[in-house]
Amino acid sequence: TVKRNKEQYDMELKILSYKDLYGWSMDEIVKAVGKKNNCTFCGVFRRQALDRGALLLKAHHVVTGHNADDIAETILMNILRGDIARLSRCTDIMSSNDKLIKRSKPFKYTYEKEIVMYAYFKQLDYFSTECTYSPNAYRGYARIFLKNLEAIQPSSILDIIYSGEQLVLNSTVKLPKQSSCTKCGYMSSNSLCKACVLLEGLNSGSANQSLYKPVSSINKIKEISISDPDHNPNQNLDFTAHFDILRAAVEQSRSPNLDNHLSCTTHCGNQNCSCSH
Questions:
Q1: Does a structural domain hold residue 124?
Q2: Angstrom distance (rounded) from CA 40 to CA 35
């Protein structure tokens, strides 16, 4: 689809695969770890790949297609897992600081079905196939729960996002201090980032054990590098220099007040409307 979009809109396109970045394709990872934990590898690698790709292309801002459904699912998952660090920043519409590549989610308040309907009626060429390896993903359970909840209360998705924005961490809670991975230079709260830990497991044949092994006990791994965009094998990029001072601080970007949306099940914005009557 993206290749067709490139031709249709005369856009520049650069495709970087996990094989290019990490030396492993997703199919190879699934063969090594099975279909139970493969989404963990994909999620970690994908998030880091966005920044790595941006650096390779000298981009300063990454825009993702996360929609309201995605954000609500993420909030639920972080609550259920007790992931305080991510819970405190997963609702930000834009995250950045002076050193970090900006990342924004312009469709944060747009329902998935609205995007699909727009693409359909505009006859846009879009990709709608689910990942082959996603049936057992933890996110899938959150999605099913959310859809069942939405059937009862149509405003549930925006309600959850609004609630997530209002969550305030207890002042006594200590969040992990962000520094840099000693191997690849990517931001990490441990000496090695999660991607390096997972790669060490894959390369040593103990991928599943690396999911639960403390980062501090992982031995140093082979330096990760990737050739430049022109694939010159004699020139590698040192990501340590790029990510040395990255921090996890993000700009708090609060949404417009959604109070008016919480009473109307059709989200017209009027608390006393007759839409639902």
A1: yes
A2: 10
Residue 193, domain member (yes or no): no
Neighbours of 97 (CB within 10 A): 14
Range of the domain at 243: 2-173+239-263
Question: How many alpha carbons fall within 13 Å on the CB side of residue 71?
Answer: 31
Strands 94-95 and 102-104: antiparallel
- What CATH number did the domain enclosing 38 receive? 3.40.50.620
Fill in the DSSP letter of residue 217: G
Q: What is the pTM of this model?
A: 0.70
Q: Within a domain: residue 218?
A: no
- Print pLDDT tens along the chain (277 aa): 889 999 999 999 999 999 999 999 999 999 998 888 888 899 999 999 998 999 889 998 999 999 999 999 999 999 988 887 777 788 888 875 555 688 999 999 999 999 999 999 999 998 878 888 887 788 888 999 999 999 999 999 999 999 998 887 676 667 677 788 888 888 888 888 999 999 998 988 877 666 655 443 333 323 333 334 444 433 333 444 433 333 332 233 333 333 333 334 344 444 445 444 3
Assign 193 to helix, strand or coil: coil
